[in-house]
Amino acid sequence: MTDWYVNAGTAEELTAALASGADTVYVRDSIELSDSCRVDGKRLVIYGTLTVPKGYVLYNDGEIYVHGTLDVLGDFYGNAPYAFYGSTVTPDSVPRHTEGEKAESIAIFGSDTVLIGTETVYTYSIQPDNAWSDYASFEIVSGGGLADINAESGVFSAGMTPGTVVIRAETFDGSGVYAEKTVEIVETEPEYDTKLALTQTTAAQGDEVALDLSIEGNPGLTYLSAYLCYDRSKLELLSVEDAGITGWYAYVGDDTLESITWSDNEVSTVNGTIATLHFRVRDGAAAGPVRVTLTGRLAHDADGNDVNVSMTPGGVTVKNHALRPAETDYLVSGKKLTFTLWNIPKNAKAAATWSLAAGDKVYASLSSSGVLTAKAVDSEHTVTVTATAKDGETLTRTIRILPKTTKVELTLDGAAVTGTIPVDMFAQPVIQLAAVTYPADALDEVKWTSSATSVARVDKNGLVTLVKPGKAVIKAAAQDGSGKTAQLTLTVTYLDAAGKLTLKAADVPKLGLQPGQSVQLTLSGKNEIAAENIEFTIPEKQAAMGSVDANGVFTAGTTAGTVTVTAALRGDPLKRKATVTIKVIPMQAAGLMLTSDLPDDQIQFMEAEPMGIIDRADVMQNALTIALTPAATDYTGSALAVPKLKWVSKDTSIATVNAQGVVTVKKGANGTVAIEATAQDLTKTVGRIWVQVRDYSPRLVSKALTVNTALDGGVSVGLVESFENAVTGVSLSDERFAAAYDNNVLTVKTAETVKNGTYKMTLTAECANGKTYDYAITVKVTKTFPSVTVKQTEKFNLFYTDSTAALTVTVKGQTVTGVTLADCDFVLTADENGQLVLTYADPDNIPAKPDTKGTLYVTLEGYAEPVAKAITVSTVTTAPKLKLSATASTVNTALKSDHSTAVRLLSKTGEVQDVSQLSVWSETDGVDVMTADGYIFLAPTGGKTVTASVYVQGANWIKSVKLTHKITVTSKLPTLKPAVSTLKLSSVFTAQTAETALILSQSNLTLQSAAVTPTAKEGTTARVQADKLNVYYDGTKIVAEIADETVKAGTYSFTVRGTLEDGTEIAGGTVKVAVTATAPTVKLSAGSAKLNRYLAGNEYLNVKVTLKNGTGYTVTGFEGMPDGMTYNAETGILTVALPDEAAAGGTYKLRPVLCHEATMQEVTLPTALTFKVTTYTSSKLSVSLSASGKLNTQNPAGAILYKISKINNCLGTVEGVALEGADADKFHAELDTSGAKPVIRLTLLDGQDYATNVTYKVRFNLSVCGQDILSSVMNIRVTQSALKLKAATPVRLYQSQTMRLETTVTVSSPLTAEIAEELPDGNRLVRFFYEGIFLEVLDRLGKMPLPPYIKEELQDRERYQTVYSKVNGSAAAPTAGLHFTPELLEKIRQMGVKIGYVTLHVGLGTFRPVKEEEITDHAMHSEYCVISQETADLINETKKNGGRVICVGTTSCRTVESQAAEDGTMRACAGWTDIFIYPGYRFKVMDALVTNFHLPESTLIMLVSALAGREHVLSAYKEAVEQRYRFFSFGDAMFIH
Predict the structure, then answer these.
(1) Percent composition of the chain: helix, strand, coil (DSSP 3-state, to 5)
(2) pLDDT tier at 212, thresholds 50, 70, 90
(3) What CA–CA distance (Å, rounded) separates 56 from 1419?
(4) Which residues contact residue 111 at a Cβ distance below 8 angstroms, ignoring those fewer than 6 apart?
(5) Could you give the CA distance from residue 611 to residue 675 in angstroms, rounded to a whole number?
(6) How many whole angstroms separate alpha carbon 852 and alpha carbon 826?
(7) 1098-1146 pLDDT per residue, tens
(8) Of 869, 867, 836, 876, which Cα lies nearest the Cα of 854?
(9) How far is CA 692 from the centre of its chain?
(10) Is residue 24 pLDDT above 70, yes or no?
(11) Are 283 and 233 in contact (CB under 8 A)?
């Protein structure tokens, strides 16, 4: 914090002090404040009397302390905490330091000795701490010729003579308290253990140097501070850089004498460099040494003890020479700069030798006379110029070589500007331009000029000040000699650029304004001008006709006539103005209400207009008269004398009206008529009342009824109430029948048993109006049952006692509630899934021939008795198909084992059967049978061959199954032989094995072991080779393998002997092992490839690798494959490709590598395969296509298939397809590569319209081998099959009926529908059944739904929604803006209006009237809405710039309001909304609305009232009725703003 002290009490001196950088200003004497004495965020301390003038304001938290007297001359305001917001400051309300005391003592702090020629700073401390003043001033009281001291800062400057000086510090508060200190000025400083030292250096004028400050003997300091002393006329301190000591900081104070302080909370014992001081040698500094030292040094250790620190000064020796010019550090390409060496002591030029640093000659040249010439560069470079004086002293200068400016560009707010731009000096009195030079390193200095300073001035920084309307060219010229400039023409306007203004009155009725009516006046030129910038006037003689306020609202007066209103711009230098005339007319009838003499209970309202209700029964015999009474009101709703009226009936067949307003309803009339009275004044206001003659009798849908007595419920027919005249009861004249009524449905059934036939009777309906209505009806009585369909899905197998068979029973159009079966040996039950199942009625007592004929009784929902159906159960008797695992076996008596045989029981297909759950026996003599472990054991007992009959029976079988088995008894030993006589081994794949099973001639025996020995004799050549094979029995089979790879090819025999389980040895015969050197053969599907170098790296040929003459092998690779050739062992594909465009091809020898799958042994075959690769270069790629199929709008799944038969100059395949061409956006193309040839499938797109008489053109862009191939143009024709519709049966709709009538339309198309549910709000839930894509089918079958009041058929279905026709789904069009066209929207854009789009899928609930007494009880239907990011950004930007958001239609309003945040910001979103806007709602986004005229009781008119207010809406609707505006779609709209 800095202070400023004012001794004299003048306002001028105080103003200067307050304008300084001081934080606190002290005033010793009295002073009077003036308006220029602004205490802005400062502290003002007054020790004398303060006089405050009236109206003085204290700004920005300023503080005033008064120690003396306060004299307030009037109200004194401020926003400081001491001035109290908005309150008057009195002497008592300004804080005073009354609690403080005067100074009692003062102490001076600082060094006792000062080195000659140096400076130091002395400080002081005043006691007590709460003294009024903490300020004192210094002076020298002795030895004044030896030194000087600054009275305020305490800076002590020692001269060059040693001696003693006494300084004094005296308090400022007038107490007279002071302190003195004796200071010795010495020639040398004492030496201490702790030393500071600064380095020395040499430099020339303009050079920047760095001096290191170091410390030695640091005892563990925690604090060190000093003052920096040097000759400021020679050196300029740039910065102090600390040495990065942890926790230590270095900074330069901003006092008059620079100070340096290091401090830390912890002890530091660092020695060495602690800071670096950066200086610049000032231009003009004299040659010689400049000393730099630190004075006023204070230091202490961690215990707070003072530490003496000595100082070794450093400094800069200024060289004898200087390089000039010194201020230039750059040179532009092509420019020259002449350097001279200057002798400082002699103040004259000196001879020098000039040179450039190594490598700098690329960017510049330097002559022997010191002329530096910059060469052409495109970016900044640096060169170093060296001058060497005769005495050897060298000086260097670094110069930036800059490229010459090639272009100058002007920018405004960061964006480039050029040409002409308009500027409104009213809204923007100044603009800041910037100039950018190119290239980036070019000199960025430009000179700014204006061609017309009377229009616009520009300063050196590009700040343009607009003076008056007109044109001025602002130019920026590069200052590097390039001559490049940039300019911008400003067209300066004031509020509006138009030379002529237009004044308009909005929405003035054609007839004129009535007294009290107001219109908004709008002044515009090129744009609308705000009212606050306009002055409106009316001639004084026309004042009675009307007035206009400051906002431009004209209000009609009580005198009729024509008023001229003038509007002029305030302060317009061009004095522009405009006028408008407004016609004022006398008060007219705005409303005309008609009332009748009918009772109140006969009056209803239709669209807010009264309607008299007449019961048709009252006019069936005679006519009826009604007297009407008119009443008139003006536009304010106040009563008005009824003007002359003209009466008319809109349908004289129902009623007429005379000139007195008497209505005559004609005899027998039926229907509704409007009676109108038209005021015969200027407005022609119409009053209307409706007369409706109602027929209250219920409507009977059919008078011919059929009652089926087999049914419980009788027959139902519609009996529809009219005009809410509810049916309260029904009866029939024939008591044999009964009638019931519920919810508009009449039900007739028999009350007793009635024969079939036709009966005539009278139906009487009693209604809520107390009347009865009779109907002659005919009732036909029948008794019929529906047809029953029975299907037995499987035959009943009589073989099993627990057999079942499924049965289904269906009755078309009926619900089956029960089924029973009688009169046979079977019953019906339901399984766990509800399936009907046939079973035996008594499984324990099944007759030999079950009775299969029975009667089925089917109970149906709604029928009084079951339906009987005779059926025959379909049966079959099928035993299980069984067999024994062997039909014959042998029992050998020569063996030691048990003499029996074991067999398995098998199914027909070979599955083993569980015999433990079966009964097994034999009735053959000489054979015993038993079962164990799942086997059937047969043992012959007679010692001879026998054929046994074996019987098998299950518990649920009706009889047994007979099987046979022959047992042969023998005493001969069995034989053994190999299944394969010769085993084959390969000497190529030596890890292979060969094996064979051993077969016993007697199958029921088990081989225990077998011995295998070579047949050849010992010592023979055959035996030597046979011993190189390993042939053995592994317990299940004989295995042969190569033991020694040197075995020769040949066939070797081995003898086999076996041993049975009982130890009996048997002969095994001979097995041969054939050793061959053969191996499988590898084949390639192609022996050559021709590849295109243009497609190198992308084109490839796949060669299929196959094996012949061997199984169990896999080709794992090839030796000798060149670059670009790869092999995939999993797929067996050899891929041939060119590695790069330089590949030349060649003939290659490929040696296959085979793997034996069983042993995983890999072997490289000796025989090589030859493959040849040839190359060529061609960029002409093309495809050959063949087409089939057609496109039909009635078949969305249809497609045209384009088969790709050939790709020319390429071996690749098609990898992707895209559509191009004029009609590409109408079709979809999909690539199918699943077949032998790739196929392109072309289909229709959803939501597109197609014409059958148009040829569409598309092209395929095919991706092949990294290239795009464009096909020829495809001509596409689209067809459409005809739809066949079956006309619906006509239905009659009665006047004002309240029951729905239903009919069915049969359409032979891919779409049918059914009404699944009627919802509580009257809507219907419809379920659609269709083939294809729903929206496409709907689009083909349906048409644009139009409101009932639009009678013409739309030729173009998109016309109804005009520019809004974009998104499918809405139930209505946004009718408020249907008058918009693309041309009109473009004109609006040209006016500067930005247009955004939102989507709301309007639901039917929007148009439902509000019937609830409390509008908050009304439930809105949810509607889906979408706001894009683009529209959200547009709304937010418009709001930010102060613009208005105008919604076209309540649709747009509800969309943006439902999704806006509370602060009015908008975000992109999509979701559901059920927003209900009614009066009291605060609009967050919308500022104005364009909307139609809506029906009373609708949610939409409530929304409009929430924006405009009830009275404005009523007034607008009255105006609409008077002017006969068109309501609804394509009608008139209103703008609420």
Answers:
(1) 10, 50, 45
(2) very high
(3) 62
(4) 120, 183, 295, 296, 297
(5) 10
(6) 7
(7) 888 999 999 988 888 999 999 999 998 999 999 999 999 998 888 888 9
(8) 869
(9) 57
(10) yes
(11) no
HSE-CB of 689 using CA atoms within 13 angstroms: 28
Least confident range from 490-494, 1020-1024, 1522-1526: namely 1522-1526
For 680-744, list the strands marked E by DSSP. Answer: 686-694, 699-700, 704-708, 715-720, 727-732, 737-742
Per DSSP, the three-state class of 925 is coil
Query: Residue 6 has what pLDDT?
Result: 58
Per-residue confidence band for 1307, with pLDDT thresholds at 50, 70 and 90: very low
> Does 94 score more than 70 pLDDT?
no
Beta strands at 796-797 and 875-876: parallel, antiparallel or unpaired: parallel
DSSP code string of 144-187: TTTEEE-TTT-EEEE-SS-EEEEEEEEESSSS--EEEEEEEEES
**CA 29 to mean position of chain CA atoms:** 71
Which of 976, 974, 967, 971 lies closest to 900, judged by CA?
A: 967
d(CA 1145, CA 1172): 8
Residues 467, 468, 471: CA angle, nearest 5 degrees: 105
Burial of 419 (0-12, 13-18, 19+ CB in 10 A): exposed
The answer to whether 1134 and 1127 have CB atoms below 8 angstroms apart is yes
At residue 1432, the 3 state secondary structure works out as: helix
Residue 607, C-beta contacts closer than 8 angstroms, at least 6 positions apart: 1495, 1496
The amino acid sitting at 1089 is A
The residues, any chain, with a CB within 8 Å of residue 1290's CB and separated by 6 or more, are none
Q: Judge if the upstream peptide bond of residue 1479 is cis by omega within 30 degrees of 0.
A: no
What is the length of the chain? Answer: 1537
State the residue for tokens 């190359």: 1175
Q: What does the block give as tokens for 235?
A: 């050196």
Decide if 534 contacts 569 (C-beta within 8 A): yes
**Counting Cβ atoms within 10 Å, is residue 1018 exposed (0-12), middle (13-18) or buried (19+)?**
exposed
| pLDDT at site 155 | 86
Residues 6+ apart with CB under 8 A from 1049: 987, 1075, 1076, 1077
Q: Are strands 113-115 and 178-186 parallel, antiparallel or unpaired?
A: parallel
**Of the candidates 1053, 1036, 1161, 1141, the residue with the CA atom closest to the CA atom of residue 1096:** 1141
Q: ∠ CA 1441-1442-1445 to the nearest 5 degrees?
A: 105
> CA 1481, CA 713: separation in Å to the nearest integer?
55
Q: Report the C-alpha gap between 294 and 797 in whole angstroms.
A: 124
Between CA 1128 and CA 224 the distance in angstroms is 80
Residue 1014's nearest CA partner among 1006, 1001, 1025, 1002 is 1025
Residue 1306 has pLDDT above 70, yes or no: no
| Average pLDDT over every residue of 913-927 | 90
Residue 392 burial by Cβ neighbours in a 10 Å radius (0-12, 13-18, 19+): exposed
Residue 552 pLDDT grade (very low, low, confident, very high; cuts 50, 70, 90): very high
Q: What angle do CA 1474, 1475, 1481 make, to 5 degrees?
A: 165
End-to-end CA distance of the chain: 56
Q: What does pLDDT average to over the chain?
A: 85
Write the single-letter amino acid at 1191: L
Residue 1311, token pair as written in the block: 């779409």
Residue with tokens 């008299």: 612
Q: Read off the pLDDT of residues 679-697 as tens digits, 9 standing for 90 and up.
A: 998 888 999 999 999 888 8
Handedness of CA 93, 99, 104, 108 (dihedral sign): negative
The answer to whether the CB of 365 falls within 8 A of the CB of 373 is yes
User: Which of the 8 DSSP states describes residue 1453?
Assistant: H
Q: What is the pLDDT of residue 1296?
A: 43
What does the CA dihedral 1400, 1405, 1408, 1412 come to, rounded to 10 degrees? -120
φ, ψ for residue 628, nearest 5 deg: -105, 140
DSSP H or E segment with residue 401: strand 394-402
